[in-house]
Structure formats: C-alpha cells, structure tokens
Request: fold
Amino acid sequence: MRLAPPRRVLPAFTLPLLLLLSACAGPATAAGPAATDRVDLPRSYIFSPTNVVVPPETTITWTNSDQFTHTVRLLPTGEVIGTMRPGESLRYTFTAPGTHPYDCSLHPQNMKGTVTVK
Reply:
C-alpha cells in the first residue's frame, strides 16, 4: 500500500497577513510631475495627472470625462478660467515660468493640481 505524500498546510494567518502587507506597499510608481499638455478629469473627482510640467507657451487641455460639471480655478488669484460640463474640454496657455496651482472651484477639497512651467 502506498501512502500519499504529506500536504503542506500554511498557518491560518498567512493569507490575511499577505493581504495586509500588499495593502501597505503603496503604488508601484511614484506620482511625480508628468510631461504632458493634457489633463483628464476621470470619474473620481481628481485631475489626472495631478501635476504636469511643460515649457513656456504651452496650452494645457483639460477634458471632463466625469459625469459632473467641474471648473479650473487658478490659485491664488481665484480666476476661474472655465467651466466644463461632462464631455467638454477647456484650454489655457501658460506663459510665465513657475509653479501654477489650480483647483476645481466646485470641489476644492478633492480636486487640486499644478502646472509647472520651465
């Protein structure tokens, strides 16, 4: 009579421990500034990418892919450069070097971004 090989049994805490460790690991890539002139507003109350870097005289295009209306408001002046309904886009040309913070005036607690002109 042949006996089956012994099974390896992992302790009961192994799977929950692995799940906990993977949740704490964070994203695989750093969220540094992106070299792009396009910013999307996906269905999550964010600007994506949040931070962009561009040369002077670059026109940034924001596209509202969300189901809600959003704005782009330059900070600290408070100038709203436009309002976008779902599916609409907004364009603005940055000429001055420096970091230009902005937000959505309708959802400033969640939606913030920067355009760095170098």
Notes: Confidence is low (pLDDT under 50) at residues 17-30. The two ends are 78 Å apart (CA to CA). Residues 14-24 form the longest helix (11 residues).
